[in-house]
Design a protein that fits this description.
The protein contains 4 helices and 6 strands, in the order ααββαββαββ. With about 150 residues, the chain is an alpha+beta fold.
Length: about 150
């Protein structure tokens, strides 16, 4: 594939998420490991703003599913999101989520068969010292353009 072909392919992106400075540590098929920086996302007392945890949870849950999609044919939405806050983080925070091969195969089969597929991502979030500061639980739905309930 040429550079021009790659550049012409649609890319799924959300500018709001990009403005947080969220960084990819690792990403591949069915996998995302992300870092939400403290800088620019701190609250009035110098710890990571709760909304930043939510953006991190959304992205780390959705990207593994997005990595399976032909974005010309499919798109993701969130059905729900829950962040259980355990401890303040005065540092960057990371999260990682991975879909296993069996789950990925089932999601793709559901998309082909019925035009939609759903998975629940559950994962811890850690500060720079490795302390478990929050937990995420996100329900991600993958849909085919033109899907009808």
């Amino acid at each position: 594939m040429t550079e021009a072909q790659t550049a012409a392919e649609p890319k799924y992106r959300v500018e709001f998420v990009e403005r947080t400075g969220l960084r990819t540590l690792e990403q591949g098929r069915g996998h995302a490991h992300l870092l939400m920086p403290l800088a620019g996302n701190e609250n009035h007392v110098g710890v990571l703003y709760m909304g930043a945890y939510t953006v991190l949870a959304e992205a780390v849950a959705a990207l593994p599913g997005i990595s399976l999609l032909d974005v010309k044919r499919h798109f993701p939405i969130l059905k729900d999101i829950y962040v259980d806050f355990h401890k303040s983080a005065a540092s960057d925070v990371t999260a990682e989520y991975r879909l296993d091969e069996e789950t990925m195969a089932g999601l793709l089969a559901d998309l082909d068969r019925k035009g939609s597929a759903t998975y629940i991502a559950e994962f811890p979030m850690h500060d720079a010292d490795g302390t478990h500061v929050a937990s995420g639980r996100v329900t991600v739905k993958l849909l085919t353009h033109g899907w009808k309930k």
